[in-house]
Amino acid sequence: MAKSSSETGIVNLGTLARAGSHRSQTTPDTISGVLREAISKGLLKAGEPLKGDDLARQLGVSRIPVREALRQLASEGLVTYYPNRGAVVAALTPEEIREIYQIRKALEAHALQESIRQLSPTILKKAKEALEASRRANDEAEWGQLDIQFHEALYSLENRPRLAKMIDNLLNTVDRYWHIYGLNHKQRRVFDREHKQILEACLQKNSKQAVALLQAHLDHAAAMLIRTIAGGAKTDQPTKAAVSPKRLGPRKPTASSPGR
Amino acid sequence: MAKSSSETGIVNLGTLARAGSHRSQTTPDTISGVLREAISKGLLKAGEPLKGDDLARQLGVSRIPVREALRQLASEGLVTYYPNRGAVVAALTPEEIREIYQIRKALEAHALQESIRQLSPTILKKAKEALEASRRANDEAEWGQLDIQFHEALYSLENRPRLAKMIDNLLNTVDRYWHIYGLNHKQRRVFDREHKQILEACLQKNSKQAVALLQAHLDHAAAMLIRTIAGGAKTDQPTKAAVSPKRLGPRKPTASSPGR
DNA sequence: ACCCCGAAGATTGTATACAATTATACACGG
DNA sequence: CCGTGTATAATTGTATACAATCTTCGGGGT
């Protein structure tokens, strides 16, 4: 078999698979985990084709489990599936990002509201520590992790697995744009102050204010991100205009959603 | 090959596949559509194993596309996947149902709030018609369909595909319990009155009240459903205790969720 | 009788092979 | 030069075959 055209990017997924904490019980889950991380961290560019053969070879498996992983990611919205033409990393329009942040606002506000009455000192301490650690973080990725830890600590998601999954899913979907533009870094000051305010409201069990502050925080983040993406000359790919190496036509992707 | 043990229930999926509107572009989507419908309509009982071989034979395909469909449904939460032991129809505990309704409340309240300012007369008329048609509906399923139409008309989900998908997904997940217990029928009066009130608030563009009424409506529905399930001697299966023909052990299912 | 162990059957998991579809390159006619 | 049609290559989609795992059932030991 002659070498396949483009080796699906610069990233070595095989390495990621072995190095990372992706030792799942099943092969497709391992693969979807690796790809999820690669996508949410911005290592794979939006629009980039995810070819079954390439991925399979890089990961040392056949295309069957790869297909299953891709289908799962498609169902999560991280990947767009074009029938008979394969999967590409999902590209989000500013409008979609806006929608996602609106949904996040609704879900996370709900999560915090429910959580705030039963916030134990232990949890509050954990949130505070994440916040403080984030001030000392010295790279983008670490700050992002701690940001998420801070938020999720306050939400008390342990007993609400569905809510947790939905929020995580939305986070994963937008995360990469923060990484790509290095926005976390630029906004650290602002976000840190907002986090501090939210935490204070939680300490005072002032749920109304905490929720309002959280919503404002998410609004700011969304506005920042959308402004950067829409306005920024620099779109998704670092230098050259290669959004879709093999550009995929205008055909619509599978809805894959419940039909009503 | 000797005949496989149990033919995956009483339902003839092959028929459903050909009869219904499940002519999707891809085989796995067709299959997931059929199964989604069968599950959400309550034709497949909670805990019932979904064996790859059976489904493949009934649908006239191989197990490969079936596996992909099952994985997608697992990602949607309609099916629970036990590694190396296959998939079963997801069983919801009262606690999970409560969680789902809380999430629905958050999402649908958001949807309605955003939608209400731009509700056109056309849309309001459509909602009203659905409501009126539901009064004339003479079976469970039809009423359910119109109920959903009424709600979704008011939410204006056309421009918010992710939100639409998430709401639909939650609906699909809990729907079968209403069908199984025939609860829609018993609650028609109450629900109809509540729908009417919501519609009136929308007509007056009173978004605050409309949202409050919607939330109360969902709270009532959740309470009703949970009371029935938890209290009802009749659990999920009609007569005999056959929740899991081949009972699946206590091993945990795959999380299949983003790992943090 | 009970429990532990092992073999047989059933079922899932995946690699391989092939069919179907789509993209690409190139010659041809306008 | 440009659009069009056709051959070729690349890629996806799925059936089949086989390996791995799990469940069940029965025998031997206690």
Keywords:
homodimer, 260 residues, mainly alpha, Arc Repressor Mutant, subunit A, Four Helix Bundle (Hemerythrin (Met), subunit A), DNA-binding
Strand content of chain A: under 5%
CATH topology of the largest domain in chain A: Four Helix Bundle (Hemerythrin (Met), subunit A)
Structural class of chain A: mainly alpha
Order of helices and strands of chain A: HHEHHEEHHHHHH
For the sheet with most strands of chain A, the description reads: 3 strands, antiparallel
N→C terminal distance of chain A = 44 Å
* Most extensive interface, chain pair and sizes: A-B, 50 and 50 residues
Count of structural domains of chain A: 2
Average pLDDT for all residues of chain A = 85
The poorly predicted ranges of chain A are: 1-6, 233-249
Assign a percent range to the helix content of chain A.
Answer: 55-70%
| CATH-level-2 architecture of the largest domain in chain A | Up-down Bundle
How would you describe what is shown here?
- In chain A, strand 2 (79-82) and strand 3 (86-89) form a beta hairpin.
- The first copy, chain A, has ten helices and three strands; from the N terminus they run H-H-E-H-H-E-E-H-H-H-H-H-H.
- Chain A has two domains: 13-89, Orthogonal Bundle (Arc Repressor Mutant, subunit A), CATH 1.10.10; 94-231, GntR ligand-binding domain-like (Four Helix Bundle (Hemerythrin (Met), subunit A)).
- In chain A, 43% of the residues are buried.
- The first copy, chain A, has helices at 13-19, 27-40, 52-59, 63-76, 94-116, 121-136, 140-155, 161-181, 183-203, 207-231, and strands at residues 49-50, 79-82, 86-89.
- Chain A is globular, with a radius of gyration of 19 Å.
- Residues 1-6 and 233-249 of chain A have low confidence and may be disordered.
- The first copy, chain A, has a three-stranded antiparallel beta sheet with strand order 1-3-2.
- Chain A is mainly α.
- Chains A and B meet through helix 2, helix 4, helix 5 and helix 8 of A and helix 2, helix 4, helix 5 and helix 8 of B.
- The structure holds a DNA duplex (30 and 30 nucleotides).
